[in-house]
């Protein structure tokens, strides 16, 4: 569904991405991991057509990203930094529905269907009781869950999430990963998620991409040689605790 070929992004004299090629199939749940400054956000912005590659290209269902976004239901995108100014007096329901009304103009007014859809997604992410609260009165983690509901409101076939677990506590973190896994396995939604939560990767996603300017590895979590990956992608001196099977087999470092 998504094919990236030889993506290279240069800003000034600096090479941010260097010859990155990969394929993501429909319905796959993929995690992109890598250290700070590795080019993860740049890569997903390139997939979304927000950054033009210096070399190479991205095709989504055979289309350039902006063509795909215009023709299909768009791409649900959760950026690393909130695009809505949370200090404004906006209700949670409005924050979610702005995304749905965009194509029709913001003054169309909500239909019963709009409200049902918003409540469905708010409830899926466990914040339906906040629907009529002001977004500024919610905690950071609750705001993040509202943002996830907003990403789903137009029923996109692709979700691109830049660190969705920011500010989310351990209980809701697992809940969100489970919902994302269900969306990919049951609803066939393709999900690309940037995360520093490497531990979660092995338990929930289908594929892992390890990025640091170049794509160092890409494969099923069980096929990744984590100790080698940590050395090449993150550098020496890093240990990782891998979680799998509800943490029954937690191990430090090694091949988990
Ligand atoms: N507009 C820009 N102008 C100059 N340099 C940029 C620009 N955008 C990104 N960079 C640089 O590109 C590199 C990769 O940034 P990017 O945000 O893609 O990394 P990241 O892997 O998402 O990092 P993090 O984990 O910290 O979010 C960084 O060194 C950053 O400073």
From TrEMBL:
SMART domains to which the protein is assigned, alphabetical: AAA (SM00382)
Keywords: ATP-binding, Hydrolase, Nucleotide-binding, Transport
Pfam families: ABC_tran
GO molecular function term, any single one: ATP hydrolysis activity
UniProt xrefs under InterPro entries: AAA+_ATPase, ABC_transporter-like_ATP-bd, ABC_transporter-like_CS, Metal_Ion_Import_ABC, P-loop_NTPase
All residue ranges annotated as the ABC transporter domain in the record: 2-238
EC number(s) reported in the record: 3.6.3.28
Domain of life per record: Bacteria
Family per similarity comment: Belongs to the ABC transporter superfamily.
Protein name per the record: Phosphonate-transporting ATPase
């Amino acid at each position: 569904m998504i094919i990236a070929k030889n993506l290279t992004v240069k800003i000034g004299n600096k090479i941010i991405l260097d010859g990155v090629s990969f394929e993501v199939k429909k319905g796959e749940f993929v995690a992109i991991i890598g250290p700070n400054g590795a080019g993860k956000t740049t890569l997903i912005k390139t997939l979304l057509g927000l950054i033009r590659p210096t070399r190479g290209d991205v095709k989504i269902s055979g289309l350039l990203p902006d063509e795909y976004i215009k023709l299909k239901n768009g791409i649900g995108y959760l950026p690393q930094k909130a695009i809505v100014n949370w200090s404004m007096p906006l209700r949670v329901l409005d924050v979610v529905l702005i995304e749905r009304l965009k194509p029709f103009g913001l003054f169309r007014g909500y239909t019963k269907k709009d409200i049902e859809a918003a409540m469905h997604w708010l409830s899926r992410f466990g914040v339906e009781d906040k629907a009529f609260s002001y977004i500024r009165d919610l905690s950071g983690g609750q705001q993040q869950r509202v943002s996830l509901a907003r990403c789903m409101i137009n029923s996109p076939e692709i979700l691109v999430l830049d660190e969705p677990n920011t500010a989310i506590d351990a209980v809701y973190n697992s809940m969100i990963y489970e919902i994302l896994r269900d969306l990919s396995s049951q609803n066939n939604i393709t999900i690309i998620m940037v995360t520093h939560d490497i531990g979660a990767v092995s338990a929930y996603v289908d594929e892992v991409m390890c990025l640091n300017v170049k794509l160092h590895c890409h494969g099923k979590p069980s096929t990744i040689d984590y100790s080698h990956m940590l050395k090449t992608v993150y550098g020496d001196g890093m240990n990782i605790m891998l979680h799998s099977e509800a943490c029954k087999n937690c191990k430090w470092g090694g091949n988990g």
